[in-house]
Every structure is written in structure tokens, then in C-alpha cells.
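Whiteboard transcription, Tuesday session. T.W. wrote the C-alpha cells on the left side:
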């Protein structure tokens, strides 16, 4: 039987950083930041530098979350975003969003000058279409209206890519980095500045009050003046109905070695299916990183084929070898395509959030950290209202997206209860699925040692039925994107509690 390789991120292959300790006792501080991804670390680092005493809690380990599973393009070119923002809002809003992300890029470049060793490279960023796209026509006009450093690059991209390109746009002097190196550099400097970082410490609740208290899965407490939730998907999403405000999309990335000359720059197609690619140089090896094949999280079981299609594209377009690394990432898309950064709830002025970066967490995450650091230290920041999570004026497009997202969630609740289940004995080695055991539906995975791992199929977030993900060997919730490993442990929130689990040795297939 062909066994598909287990997924592993290129960025984590040489991750030998000394681990940070678990939180072993309750503590008090000025500010507690939850989540050590790019937004949480920039927030914590900046606050600590400005004289605040900060405690940073990470449920897993630094670099194991979304930031460590991205392509790490640092660009203000976020697909065809500017024409969309001009159409949905106005030119001023589009300009502010551009400047918000441009500020992050400047911050990152200054850090490189300051000695951050993060494999930073300056690259031009391109959008292209091989079919011809009205989106690119509108986006080019938006570039002209906003005065962006770029524009039409059709002939340039035709000459650069071995693809039948019909249209292309460019924004000059963007960047790409090694995201895990960046996180570890931020973490090291944060701790050196006096901050406290605790890994394998999952926050499970925030108790409101004059000084809110964060509780962890082990019963420890952190009391602070303010709390920042930077957990990618906010784990405390029930209050404020945040679960109803996101579309959760999963996408895939392969890293393939190639000995051919490769195009300079970072590229993203606006066609369907979309393709995103950049290069990464490691010693004598050149990797082509190809991303795409996105779908709503938890809605696809046979995800292995997604990697196979990206693999074929890399081989056909760039004569690349079979993928050395394969991994996936999860993105939150807000109703109006602007992140939520700021005060999280109208009646809790001391709880803040940073989330909803879509596929552009590098610059959005950095800029969000800078914004929150300003807000929490009393500094003016002109982007505060732009990204206010409490903004209430929904456009017609937002209402339509809200209804679509929540209708889909309701559909998944019903669908999960009606789907038929298989038989445990039918599972092959390294195969999972929903089966009947003792008259009850359970999620089962038969590992390579022929042991079956059984979990509840009921997501611990809001009770939706989880689905098997055959490439990641995970149980994924189609309602709000929570993910669990084969033993039920939480891989990705908003869920904070594991699925109930039992191991069942099985000799029937020996």
C-alpha cells in the first residue's frame, strides 16, 4: 500500500531552540499576551521594551502555529485587495490599509538593520493571470489612485515565468523571511528585555473584573491590568459572537528542490485554482515553495490530492523535484476583509484581540502588534478606528457574507449527524474515518503499528461533527476550524479542550 508522507514544515526542520518553561505557578503582571505567533510576539516585545511587565502564554511551542506554516511573504500586495476596499468602503480606507501594512514592512527592515538574523530578502511582488482578469484591471486602477510603487508588469512577468501569462501587476521592494527564525529572534529579545514566556501553557478562560484573570488548562492563573488575545482564532469567541464573523480557509504548500534557474520575486495568481510561489535558498539548495488548493476548513477529507496537484505544478512549471516538505495553513477571513485589532468586547475595556489576517499574517500581524502596543501605552495610532473589532456598520456585502458563513455552519451541524459511518475492521494502516464501535459513532485512526485510536466526533468548541483529514492525520471541525490530532489533543483553536480518547489494540489485520 502506498503511504503518503507525513506533513512537515520546511521552516521547522532545524528548530533546535531551547524550550521555554511551562507556567507552574499563578502570577501577576501588567499585561498578559496569549499566543506566541507573530502578532502576539510583536505585541509582547514592544510592550516590554516600553516598560510594561508582560507575561506571554503559548499553548504549544514558539513556531508551531500558523506563522510557522506560511510562505512568509512580507508584502503589501494582498491579492486584489485595494480595488475591493475602494469598492466596499472608499479610497481613504484602502489607503489606510496600505499604510498600515507598509508600516510593518518598514519595521521589519529596521529590525534587519538592527541585527535580526531572519534570512530577509528584498523581492518584488507580482499578481498575474493566465486567463485574463477584470480583477487585475480594477486593481491596476486602484494602484494608480493610491499612488502605489508599481503597476502593470505584464511583459516583465511574461518574460520571467514559463506560463502563458496574459496580465500582471507588480509592487516593488517587498520582502520575504524565514518566519520561525523571526519568531525565535523576537522571543529571545523579549525574554532578554525582562519578559516572561511560557510554552505548553494553554489559556482556557478569561475572568472579567477590575484586573482580569486568565486561567490555564492546569489551573494556573495570570492576573493583569490588560489581556491581549493573539491566538489566531480567538479561543474566547463565544462572547461577542466572533465565531459568526469568520470564514476559515485551509490551504497547502509544498517545498520542492530545483536545479533550474528560477524567477526572481514573489508571485500569486488570481485565477482558479490560485497558485502562490516564492523561492528559498538553503546553502546550495534552492527550494521552490508553491501554495494554493484552498478550501473551507474541515470540508475536505481527501486532502492528499491537494499536495499532489501542487507537486505537479512545481514539476511542470519549474522542473522541480518531488516535494521534500509539505505543510498546510489555516486563515481567518473577516466579513469585510479587514482584521479585527483592538478592544474585543464593548463592556470589557481591558481585553484586546488581534485576528482575521486572511492570508497576510506577516505584515498584518506585525502591524497589529504595533497598533496594540500603542493602544496599551496610551499612544495615538491613526489605524485604531480602521481595524476596531467593534465596528458596527455592516455593508451589504458583509451581511451577505455573514448569512453565507452561518448558513454553512448550520448545514455542517445537520450534515454531521446524518452521515453514514463505516466499520473499524475496514480501516487500513495509516487510515482514519468515522466508524461504528459498540453501536456508537466514533472517529478512528489505525496507525502504522496497527493500533486504533478512537476519539469522540463531537468538537469540544460548539459540538459540530469533526471530519478526518487524511494528509494531516487530524480531525478537523467544518464549523469553526478547530483541529485535533489522532489522540484528540487540540492542534488548533478555538477549541481549548481535547476530544475524549481511547486506544484500542486490534489484531484482526495482523
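and on the right, the sequence the group agreed on:
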Amino acid at each position: 500500500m502506498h503511504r503518503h508522507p507525513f506533513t512537515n514544515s520546511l521552516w521547522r526542520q532545524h528548530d533546535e531552540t531551547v524550550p521555554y518553561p511551562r507556567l507552574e505557578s499563578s502570577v501577576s503582571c501588567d499585561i498578559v499576551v496569549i499566543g506566541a505567533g507573530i502578532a502576539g510576539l510583536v505585541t509582547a516585545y514592544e510592550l516590554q521594551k516600553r516598560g510594561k511587565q508582560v507575561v506571554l502564554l503559548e499553548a504549544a511551542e514558539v513556531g508551531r502555529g500558523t506563522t510557522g506554516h506560511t510562505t512568509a511573504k512580507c508584502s503589501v500586495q494582498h491579492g486584489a485587495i485595494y480595488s475591493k476596499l475602494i469598492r466596499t468602503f472608499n479610497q481613504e480606507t484602502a489607503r489606510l490599509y496600505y499604510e498600515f501594512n507598509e508600516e510593518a514592512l518598514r519595521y521589519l527592515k529596521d529590525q534587519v538593520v538592527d541585527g535580526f538574523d531572519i534570512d530577509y530578502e528584498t523581492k518584488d511582488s507580482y499578481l498575474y493571470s493566465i486567463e485574463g482578469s477584470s480583477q487585475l484591471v480594477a486593481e491596476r486602477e486602484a494602484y494608480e489612485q493610491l499612488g502605489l510603487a508599481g503597476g502593470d508588469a505584464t511583459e516583465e512577468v511574461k518574460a520571467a515565468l514559463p506560463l502563458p501569462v496574459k496580465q500582471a501587476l507588480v509592487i516593488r521592494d517587498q520582502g520575504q523571511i524565514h518566519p520561525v527564525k523571526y519568531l525565535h529572534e523576537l522571543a529571545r529579545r523579549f525574554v532578554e528585555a525582562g519578559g516572561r514566556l511560557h510554552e505548553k501553557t494553554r489559556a482556557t478562560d478569561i475572568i472579567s473584573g477590575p484586573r482580569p484573570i486568565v486561567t490555564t488548562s492546569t489551573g494556573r492563573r495570570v492576573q493583569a491590568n490588560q489581556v491581549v488575545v493573539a491566538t489566531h482564532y480567538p479561543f474566547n469567541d463565544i462572547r461577542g459572537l466572533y465565531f459568526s464573523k469568520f470564514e476559515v480557509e485551509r490551504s497547502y504548500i509544498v517545498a520542492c528542490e530545483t536545479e533550474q534557474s528560477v524567477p526572481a520575486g514573489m508571485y500569486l495568481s488570481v485565477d482558479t485554482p490560485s497558485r502562490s510561489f516564492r523561492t528559498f535558498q538553503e546553502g546550495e539548495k534552492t527550494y521552490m515553495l508553491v501554495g494554493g488548493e484552498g478550501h473551507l476548513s474541515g470540508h475536505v477529507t481527501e486532502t492528499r490530492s491537494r499536495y499532489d496537484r501542487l507537486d505537479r505544478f512545481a514539476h511542470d512549471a519549474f522542473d522541480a523535484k518531488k516535494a521534500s516538505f509539505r505543510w498546510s495553513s489555516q486563515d481567518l477571513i473577516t466579513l469585510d476583509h479587514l482584521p479585527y485589532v483592538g478592544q474585543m468586547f464593548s463592556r470589557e475595556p481591558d481585553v484586546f484581540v488581534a485576528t482575521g489576517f486572511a492570508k497576510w499574517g506577516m505584515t498584518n500581524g506585525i502591524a497589529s502588534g504595533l497598533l496594540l502596543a500603542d493602544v496599551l501605552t496610551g499612544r495615538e495610532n491613526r489605524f485604531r478606528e480602521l481595524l476596531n473589532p467593534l465596528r458596527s456598520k455592516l455593508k451589504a456585502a458583509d451581511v451577505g457574507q455573514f448569512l453565507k458563513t452561518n448558513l454553512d455552519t448550520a448545514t455542517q451541524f445537520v450534515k454531521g449527524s446524518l452521515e453514514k459511518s463505516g466499520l473499524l475492521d475496514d480501516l487500513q494502516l495509516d487510515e482514519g474515518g468515522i466508524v461504528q464501535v459498540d453501536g456508537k459513532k466514533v472517529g478512528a485512526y489505525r496507525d502504522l503499528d496497527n493500533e486504533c485510536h478512537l476519539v469522540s466526533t463531537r468538537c469540544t468548541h460548539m459540538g459540530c461533527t469533526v471530519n478526518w483529514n487524511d494528509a494531516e492525520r487530524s480531525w478537523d471541525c467544518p464549523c469553526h476550524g478547530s483541529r485535533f490530532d489522532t489522540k484528540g489533543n487540540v492542534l488548533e483553536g478555538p477549541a481549548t479542550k481535547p476530544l475524549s480518547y481511547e486506544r484500542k489494540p486490534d489484531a484482526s489485520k495482523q
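Someone added at the bottom: The chain is about 25% helix and 30% strand.
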